[in-house]
Amino acid sequence: MHRALDRNLWLQANTWVFGAAPLLAAGAFQFTALKYRCFDKCRAPLSFVMQYWHRGTGDGQALLLGAHHGAFCVGCCWALMLLMFAVGTGNIGWMLVLAAVMAIEKKSPWGRKISAPLGVTLLAWGALIVFNHAWSWQA
Prior knowledge:
Layout: H1 2-7, H2 9-13, H3 17-29, H4 33-43, H5 45-52, H6 59-88, H7 92-107, H8 115-138
Helix pairs in contact: 3-6, 3-8, 4-6, 6-7
């Protein structure tokens, strides 16, 4: 990211993009079918193991099963993880808040109900940054 910023004058002049883009991406991803497909597999590891375990006892099968399950878990949360990286470099408190939100979304019985409000909040926050930039650019 630092190299991209160093080589691109437009990005140097428009650093607000690094705030708005992860928020908008994470907010939009909250509404995708891919998130919910991955979310359902990640949320119930026991049913995942029962579905994909093939009666083997080898460590290789366990490793592949873990990698397969891990791919679903990253698939449902990659956008929030990207956002954690973006805000975590500036504020550890926001990183902890996002980690708590991800944990609640995955583990609590009502966690899936916060996905849409979270998506709306992230989209609104990203849009606010874009509109703030557009407003100050015209002034």
